Amino acid sequence: MIIIMKNDATKEQLKVVIDRVKSEGLNVHLSEGNNRTIIGLVGDTSKVRNVGFNSYDGVDRTLSVSSAYKLTSREFHPDDTVVDVDGLKIGDGSMVMMAGPCSIEGLDQIMECARIAKKGGATVLRGGAFKPRTSPYAFQGLEEEGLKYIRQAADAYDMKVITEVMDEANLDLVCQYADILQIGARNMQNFKLLQAVGKTGKPVALKRGISGTIDEWLNAAEYIANEGNFNIIFVERGIRTYETATRNTFDISAIPVIQKLSHFPIIADPSHGVGVWDYVPSMALASVAAGADGMIVEIHPDPANAWSDGQQSLNEKTYLNMMEQVHVVEEAMKKVNGIKLI
Amino acid sequence: MIIIMKNDATKEQLKVVIDRVKSEGLNVHLSEGNNRTIIGLVGDTSKVRNVGFNSYDGVDRTLSVSSAYKLTSREFHPDDTVVDVDGLKIGDGSMVMMAGPCSIEGLDQIMECARIAKKGGATVLRGGAFKPRTSPYAFQGLEEEGLKYIRQAADAYDMKVITEVMDEANLDLVCQYADILQIGARNMQNFKLLQAVGKTGKPVALKRGISGTIDEWLNAAEYIANEGNFNIIFVERGIRTYETATRNTFDISAIPVIQKLSHFPIIADPSHGVGVWDYVPSMALASVAAGADGMIVEIHPDPANAWSDGQQSLNEKTYLNMMEQVHVVEEAMKKVNGIKLI
Amino acid sequence: MIIIMKNDATKEQLKVVIDRVKSEGLNVHLSEGNNRTIIGLVGDTSKVRNVGFNSYDGVDRTLSVSSAYKLTSREFHPDDTVVDVDGLKIGDGSMVMMAGPCSIEGLDQIMECARIAKKGGATVLRGGAFKPRTSPYAFQGLEEEGLKYIRQAADAYDMKVITEVMDEANLDLVCQYADILQIGARNMQNFKLLQAVGKTGKPVALKRGISGTIDEWLNAAEYIANEGNFNIIFVERGIRTYETATRNTFDISAIPVIQKLSHFPIIADPSHGVGVWDYVPSMALASVAAGADGMIVEIHPDPANAWSDGQQSLNEKTYLNMMEQVHVVEEAMKKVNGIKLI
Amino acid sequence: MIIIMKNDATKEQLKVVIDRVKSEGLNVHLSEGNNRTIIGLVGDTSKVRNVGFNSYDGVDRTLSVSSAYKLTSREFHPDDTVVDVDGLKIGDGSMVMMAGPCSIEGLDQIMECARIAKKGGATVLRGGAFKPRTSPYAFQGLEEEGLKYIRQAADAYDMKVITEVMDEANLDLVCQYADILQIGARNMQNFKLLQAVGKTGKPVALKRGISGTIDEWLNAAEYIANEGNFNIIFVERGIRTYETATRNTFDISAIPVIQKLSHFPIIADPSHGVGVWDYVPSMALASVAAGADGMIVEIHPDPANAWSDGQQSLNEKTYLNMMEQVHVVEEAMKKVNGIKLI
């Protein structure tokens, strides 16, 4: 942390700030510039993280240098973390494919989706039993009935299950059926829920908030890791911007950024990212080329009649065609990763 | 709802869409343009809200005409709703002032804040016992102990209590001490929590999400109203944008926009809005002039040593000075509201 | 400027960076922390503003401490600048009102607008002769003919003229007719144009860019001031965000922020700010209460038939009613400004 | 265009709107819903594009259905446009590589950059002679001297030249040296400049505005096309958002979106897109996989000492390594494009 004094700060004002810092057991280094003094704090600056230095007379502003998250940080854990989902590895260099409908609508529908998903190479089946809906009048999900269906379909096709858990009240229930717990974008900073899923020890797919910063996202993962649960998978699903040609703005740079700052794997969600089905394939290929550890896409046997997100769901033909293309790029990436920077 | 067909859509494609619409019990009106056909849907369009029409062959796109929220809407409830907080009215034309520290740090501190708040004209005391912190290592709040303190301080100064409830697990506890339940920005779309606070029937201060749209915010209120709870107060606290000179961008237009679209009162939170203490007073005056039903500000006896949000908290002198100015503008607004549009 | 070394930076890497800094004639102060070294630069850091220190081995990142703009900064010019527009003062504590149509459509129209504007208390007449249109097929303005009309109308009502100049080619022409040159939002960073208007010495109303940061805006003013022209008026006209309920998000905090960082006056443009006529009056009142040095609004005798921006233009009745309310708040603000912070 | 009447609109109010529409020579189709009437306009709606229907009594709002741009639209020009740059084709299915320094600093530097660029497979040399700088005190470019150097270097390595033109005053000069005129992000809506470069008939690389919408971008291209110049190349360079981990948010979805809506080619600028050199390679690969028609990257022999944008420039080693990887993905994409959707 750095405290920048104003141009006209007095010696007394400087002393007050320095004394406050030292009272917390930290040390200071002063940079006496031509115009102003800059104070560098030495020690455990988390102790003064919340001190309102900006309110001190003579202080212009403070700048934070270190991040709050530790367990999540690659600085403290240089090697990649491989998340083990009951035998299925995520983050080990292979690309994990997850596919399924936005909502579980019935046993037949989820069975058909599982068939299609598997056919395209997916090893994890997605489907929502508890749906976060902007309006209270929209379909909220089949709940436990839906969980039973998706478990049944996944087992029939030897796949894992990823599904969203929206609150602590249903956490135990969801844990009975899911292999991976999904935390939705609107819950990225539902801190109590993060702690709760952290305590389960189960793999958690943490979606980026609708306008979540990379820093908030990493700190959200820290809530989970702080409970001893290192089975965390980041999911980039697009961020909110002014642009309306796409549902969100798919921030593909999150892939290299997260991979640099953290050791947890990151997968892409191009379906929510762009929100328009015919843009999804190119975003999927881009994600593979950007180095994503995997992908999660929405499919439906009959998108026109899907109960939710029909406009971004892929039908069987489009999905299988896309997966064929994805595999080509996957192969190319193996070769790419072998081209070392000398 | 309107479905816009592509320029080259065929008669058969048009028929498929029309048949689907009619199968839901709706009617259609066709606008046969020079280039394209536009289909207007007549009837309860919520039935087809989630049909993926965009996936139909020949369809260019759909446009939504009506909103999902009803109970919240002024169209269905033309008169202002006055929220009654155990005798204190919000939304009746008077300006309600709420003030207090970001966090409750101890009995002495909250007592002192209550004294200052009251002196400036506040009738509601704010203070956080459960704090939403980006990092798990930051101070999380005094919890029940904090609730006891703020209740004690409020009672000592004949004030009401507003405090944040972060999860259902602590809802009953918070209800024992608070007069107004605050739903924080990060929980604007925590739908389960909204339903839970809705069920209590207690007044709810609903903060706008960090990047919440007006539409999402109104629909979030709908979750609460749908439980039969019409004691809703909107709180504009700034939105996330690219600008870094302020902590958020205080969207003062939310005041007239919400007042046009909904019948629930709206108050301003200039403290979080700008995030820098010396900008708070002018934003407070602006809010009064914009017609806000009230305001909520952060104060602290010693902002430099506040445990959180010190950089945006007002000390006693600044707060009292601001309140004097606020009262002047309040008086002016009474005169302004008398200037009728003939 | 501060350079932050990585945790694992070596002594040699540190030396390379220090040597580079010193080679530019600057000095360094080192903060040797527990984990990392932070280098504070002392001297004229503009010399190394563009050195890619981030590319140096061992460097984590750099932080900029001082701003580039100087002449515009209040640090270097503590007193308010009062812009003199041929006798009319802007920034002297009074509120200047500017009103007129979006586009000049004809002599009768601009004459009628001048009559209405004057009646409401405006002293400056606005109107566009050169219109920036998103589409090349939209009405581009009456050009010189329009300039003649607005000059004639302003003279008839003893008002000043403010109108947009879009390029250097037409600058001399516009200068013949205008008292204040307006630089539109899309041209905030048209650096050549800024230099050109700077050279004229005429008053310049500099609109904030569509997504202009405060810092870019201040630096844009610096381009003008650097030509010796201190007759600069900032115009806050709303910024681009994700929200669609309003045309832009009116950033009212720009008023206190600019007044803190710069000595040039700032006026509000609530018309473009919200883009919906019935929200304009409350935004106007809010601007007065926020301390704006003035305001510029769009009016039209018949908004329904305006050639541009009809949806945000005020008709005579609404405008006069609003101005009555504005004057009440203006009076209140005189009293407010007298309430000094002891 | 569609006009939506309010719930309580009267027959008379409806008639006024209909009469106004018909007075412009258009026809109407009415959708009489349960609650409200919707008016569909039939005919050349550009005539009423600027009528302020929202100001009419009884009108709730209007919705625009068709876009303003025509020549740029794929609807009117279904086949891809191949831009011919003096023999070099852009948009013909091959990937064009453009590389070079941010600024031309001297003959030796640009010569060295050309050598490196060519070695990596680039066929177009970039370099700025006129630099758009946020601050007036920053290096503004070598101007004509710089143009001479880049031409010399490009000729030495049999490459084309792309360089930014910032104003009409220097347009003729830049035309003498450049093969492709670049319009910078800050000038995307400098309409006069767009018309001027349009008139030259020379290839134009049109960068997306800092917060440019897809629609504004397409309309900006329309200004150029409207002058008879169809040699337009879109350049996605990232958009401004709240995220600060990257300099901009690289909107990779612009590639498929533009390719759907327009027939002009689009290339990616990952350098400005992310603004941090070590994220550039993955963004480059992602762009290839997304289907970009080409790429433009910043390189420098010694980024640490670059006069501008050093933090995002690639040194020779990183650039050559990246290009090797790019070629692998390019090859894979040929195979991908052969996988047809049956």
TrEMBL record, chains A, B, C, D:
Lineage of source species: Bacteria, Bacillati, Bacillota, Bacilli, Lactobacillales
InterPro entries attached to this UniProt entry: Aldolase_TIM, Class-I_DAHP_synthase, DAHP1/KDSA, DAHP_snth_FXD, DAHP_syn_2
Top-rank taxon, per record: Bacteria
NCBIfam families per UniProt: DAHP_synth_Bsub (TIGR01361), PRK08673.1 (NF006421), PRK12595.1 (NF009239)
Originating species: Vagococcus elongatus
Record keywords, A-Z: Transferase
Keyword set includes Lyase: no
Any single biological process term in GO: aromatic amino acid family biosynthetic process
Segments traversing the membrane: none
Keyword Amino-acid biosynthesis appears in the UniProt entry: no
A GO molecular function held by the record: aldehyde-lyase activity
Entry-linked Pfam families: DAHP_snth_FXD (PF18152), DAHP_synth_1 (PF00793)
Residue stretches in coiled coil: none
Domain DAHP synthase ferredoxin-like: 1-66
DAHP synthetase I/KDSA domain: residues covered: 83-326
The protein's name in its UniProt record: 3-deoxy-7-phosphoheptulonate synthase
